[in-house]
Amino acid sequence: MEPTIAAKAEKVKVTFLPRDTTTRVPAGTTLFHAAAWTGQPIESTCGGRGTCGKCRVQIVGGAAPVTPADLEHLAQEEIDCGWRLSCQAEVRSEMVVQVPRLLTTPKTAMFGVGRQVLLDPNVHKVHLKLTEPTLHDQRSDYQRLKDALRAEGFAMTATLPVLRTLPKTLRESDFDVTAVLCGDSLIAVEPGDTKTACYGIAFDLGTTTIVGTLLDLNSGEARAVASTLNAQAIHGGDVLSRISYTMGKKEGLDELQHLIAFTFNGIIERLCGDSGVPPSQIYEMTVAGNLTMMHLLMGIDPEPISVTPFASAAAHGIELRAGDLGITTHPEGRIYLFPAIGAYVGGDIVAGLLATAVPRGGRLRLFIDVGTNGEIALGHEQRTVATAAPAGPAFEGAEISCGMRATTGAIEGVQITDDAVVLQTIDDAPPVGLCGSGLVDVVAQLYRRGFLDATGRMRSAAEVGPGVPETLARRLVNVGGLRAFTLATAEETGGRPVLFTQKDVRQLQFAKGSIAAGIKVLMKVMGVAPGDLHEVLLAGAFGSYIHPDAARLIGLVPAVPLDRIRAVGNAAGEGAKIALLSYREREAAEAMPGRVDYIELSGREDFNDIFMGVLGFPPLDSLP
Ligand code: FES
Predict the structure, then answer these.
(1) Which atom of ligand 1 is nearest to the CA of 51?
(2) CB neighbour list of residue 455: distance below 8 Å, 6 or more residues apart
(3) How far is the CA of 465 from the centre of ligand 1 (A)?
């Protein structure tokens, strides 16, 4: 029986001309946001707030009621001919909409995952020459600014800290100022014309590593990149140990929050130092991270995420004041945290799906981010499903007798030739142990060469037979009653030999079995087979280094032709950049949890059988 999927709002079909792109959106979605989902560019400067009047479209099939903003920005004849402001018109029934060509050629930016995105950041700088107050014009400074911004098509609200700066800044600059808007929040008023200095940072907030990219919001170009270990790592390597830390110590949560802010601030300092951009010109940040990291960044108790039924305190997209989190950019700068799809399919995966556009594409694609949890999504524009499979730490080198992190001396590639073992190590250093990609390689090679059978049992030297040369056969040894394969002898390492044991094979089988079972469940839910997959996308550091043929050989990924398996690198980081540079794309990320069905594996009666069925390796002659 299929698990219950949270009821989603009724979906309604909308078609955009002249591109003839069709999508289905939850009833009540605005045409502007529906268009953003399909990547259809609609003119706008206000980001869908109903103030710029530029997002007009003509409804040629279906209908939308006239809104106050339509009456303000459109002529009656236009309204009669079906013209509406797309950011105000909601899709309630099937619609066909004609989108005018863009008036100007928009700037675009290209991303590492091969996506071209319109530059349309949430931060706007508007240069204003305000009329000075007189006895006949006694409007307040606030109103004066608000009216001038409205004339430029921007709405605005201002908080007390900004209001406090207004009288002095306006008068000292002879009312020649630049208003800095983040959405419709006025976050600063700067003297003179400062439009060319406008920056943001996209953060990939990993449990282990945090990466920040400083982007010029005018050009979309990266000005500096910096990464460092998450300072929280001293309190545990994975999310569960971090959660335990907050549970076991009264000040634990505060401590972890400060450690993330501390790491962010260190990165900001380096980015500013490398680029010469002052922190005061960084107005917005986007953060893609798993749900636990997001909770810890906000200082919210993450404990409920770790216990069934895994209901978090907050999983929606959140915009906060950076200063409230102790982050040292512009004090009124904003920080946007991606929404999550489920407790273990977090904002990092939403960002990855945004970058790869899996739920918005026309063809069926499988997205896999392998780590302690394997996060998996499968789908296309009609339907996308996602899940998290608990792989355990084997792929990160833990629980493997010779396992290690991907640092100097880690074996990252293994090839067993007819008579030798060829190792590829990080920094070409003498081999010390195996990291995740080496682990997948060694098992694939041992299986291909007959040292492992399809159940994962390691054969003895006698069993592999006379066909195997002595140079390889003698590498099969017995250590304390456990069969093992010698990857590197003591002479080759200059120290202890690197042995890969039968137990290690089993650990790998459990980890890959968990992910393979998760994939199989999603394929079952979607009613598709490996042959239907247009692409398999491997995300994250592990996905970048893993050899696709080895992953396929051990059954970690479905049996598809090798040219359909593609590494997409740090998709979460790319998604964070895209959301920083494009407000419309951020809208698409916001819509993701409502468009992607989360499948909970632990609630499925068929999971165990599926898991047991994929623990072994696929028959060698079954691969395409
Ligand atoms: S009025 Fe600006 S986007 Fe609709």
Answers:
(1) 1
(2) 616
(3) 74
Using CA atoms, how far residue 498 sits from 26, 444, 479, 488, in Å, is 55, 17, 12, 5
Query: What is the C-alpha separation between 47 and 103, in angstroms, rounded?
Result: 16
Residue 609 main-chain phi, psi, to 5 deg: -65, -40
- Residues shown for the chain: 624
What span, in angstroms and rounded, lies between the C-alpha atoms of 326 and 269? 14
Q: What is the pLDDT of residues 312-326, one digit of tens each?
A: 888 899 999 999 999
pLDDT of 5 over the 60 cut: no
Instruction: Locate 76 and state its tokens.
Output: 């009656």
Shortest-distance Cα residue to atom 1 of ligand 1: 50
Alpha helix segments (H runs only) across 283-356: 291-298, 303-306, 347-356
> If you take atom 2 of ligand 1, which residue's CA is the nearest one?
52
CA-to-CA dists, residue 432 to 177, 395, 429, 473, 544, angstroms:
60, 16, 8, 22, 21
Q: Is 250 helix (H, G, I), strand (E, B) or coil?
A: coil
pLDDT tens per residue across span 410-445: 998 899 998 889 999 999 999 999 888 889 999 999
Is residue 390 reached through a cis peptide bond, with omega within 30 degrees of 0 on the bond before it? no
Distance 583 CA to ligand 1 centre (A): 12
What is the rounded distance in angstroms from the CA atom of residue 219 to the CA atom of residue 224?
A: 14
Residue 470 — pLDDT band, cuts 50, 70, 90? confident
Are the CB atoms for 335 and 284 separated by under 8 Å? yes
Atom nearest to 45 CA in ligand 1: 2
Q: Which of 30, 31, 44 to mutate to test the pocket of ligand 1 (most atoms within 8 A of CB)?
A: 44
Which atom, in ligand 1's list, is nearest to the CA of 48?
3
Residue entry with tokens 């990609």: 437
Tell me how far the alpha carbon of residue 30 lies from the centroid of ligand 1, in angstroms: 11
- Asked whether the beta carbons of 86 and 42 are under 8 A apart, the reply is yes
- Can you tell me the distance from the alpha carbon of 42 to that of 36, in angstroms, rounded to the nearest whole number? 8
Q: Is 337 in the pocket of ligand 1 (CB under 6 A)?
A: no
Cα–ligand 1 centroid distance for 477 (angstroms)? 71
Cα-to-centroid distance, 95 and ligand 1 (Å): 19
155 lines ligand 1 (CB under 6 A): no
The Cα 308–Cα 286 span in angstroms is 29
Q: How far is CA 558 from CA 413, 534, 536, 551, 623, in A?
A: 21, 12, 8, 9, 9
Q: Would you say the CB of residue 89 lies under 6 angstroms from ligand 1? A: no
Nearest Cα residue to atom 3 of ligand 1 = 48
State mean pLDDT over 398-420: 87
Q: Phi, psi at residue 475, to the nearest 5°?
A: -80, -15
pLDDT computed for residue 8 by the predictor: 53
Name which of 399, 487, 408 is nearest 442 in CA terms. 487
- Annotate 40-105 with DSSP letters as a single string: -----SSSSSSSS---EEEEEES-----HHHHHHS-HHHHHTTEEETTT-B--S-EEEE-PPPSSP
Q: Is the CB of 548 under 6 A from ligand 1?
A: no
